[in-house]
Amino acid sequence: MTETLHVIVTAGPTREYIDPVRYLSNESSGLMGFEIAKALLAAGHRVTIVAGPVHQETPEGAERIDVMSALDMLAALEEHFPKADAIFMAAAVGDFRPATKLGGKWKKKEEGGGPPVLELVENPDLLATIAATKGHRKVIAFALETSDGEARAAAKLVRKNADYIVLNGASALNAATSTVTVLNGNGVVWALEDSPKAATAKRLVELLG
Ligand code: CTP
Fold it and tell me: What is the pTM of this model?
């Protein structure tokens, strides 16, 4: 019987509002994160899911915190990560947000001018922020790469102070299967090709030891 751990799983996209009805987001369905949550529960662990806007059913026994923007997700992680033993950072966090959220609808034309210009500011790196002081906590990051994957994922592992990083390609987004390569500080640990996300999740949970 393995030790019961309290594990946080982030899942899904974040959503950054431009005005009351428009937003910036991405294709993430949250499936990978929710499969990891199920696999953790099946292994006897306690799970807190921090979910962006997704259509995923909460697995029985999991605690769920719904968030919208990257800054909302950061606030939830800053509150809950210090009390947890590990985190799987499967969320596809938006890197940028509009500099201001308009109170009313964005108009087709700016006052007296042409099309409006959307000014963006960078979101903080949530994982790097919370993992900087992780202590004994295990941090499993994800990396979505379209080229030069292993080298870029290895650099992210270091930059984000993670113990492992799960590399996948853009075809993993909103898909039932994915091809993943898991790396740690020494290089590739294992890889799975075109694997159903539930099967991948089971293997990922084993990384907790
Ligand atoms: N991540 C995060 N905060 C961000 C961006 C990403 O916590 N603002 C996390 C993701 O949840 C994932 C890991 O960092 O676990 C890598 O995400 P990815 O989008 O691949 O990398 P980026 O840091 O955004 O780098 P780039 O866009 O340059 O590839």
Answer: 0.95
